[in-house]
Write a structure and sequence with these properties.
35% helix; 6 helices; 2 domains; three-stranded antiparallel β-sheet; globular; Rossmann fold
Length: 212
Amino acid sequence: MIFVDRLDAGRRLAAVCSTYRQDWPHPVVLGIPRGGVPVAAVVAEALDAPLDVILVRKLGLPHNEEVAMGAIGEGVRVVDEDLIRVMGVTDEQLARVEEREHAELERRVRRYREDRRPADLNGATAVVVDDGLATGATARAACAVARAQGAASVVLAVPVAPPDWEPQPGVDADSFVCVARPSGFFAIGQWYRDFTQTTDAEVRRLLGLPNE
């Protein structure tokens, strides 16, 4: 299955999510910036649910940033100790990556929240949405943030993911919704005709923030 773009992926994901609507009390849809937000906006509209961002940053390997060795979020840190050991990443290299990504995380908090408080997740079903899932490190961090913020349950919803990826119930997501799990998976972008990078301006528009 090939998605035309993130809007198309959002529509297909929303159709699947809508079938679970009765099982998700008080849903709040949380898009992972930047690419997850256009997908999440469509899902939120279909579920008649609030839309917000959940702010996390992938910790990419020093020599291959597309491969995640972990992720950070607001008050949450997830690292793949096995991968770090196998790839020979030093403590100093990990610290440099974390410092850089912390700075970007704080920038995004300022840009995507301004004076707004995060969505109230107490007792809610947090529906965490991204435009796809590869290693799952960023998604796991996002789910951990949602749980730490009081969500009663956490759903991870993506258009595409590897066929063998599964969440750890109670650790990251309680349930997993995915439109396509194709074989031969090596990158999210291969399953989109248009995988143009989402801009900050588009994220702000979808969140109802004024133009800068």
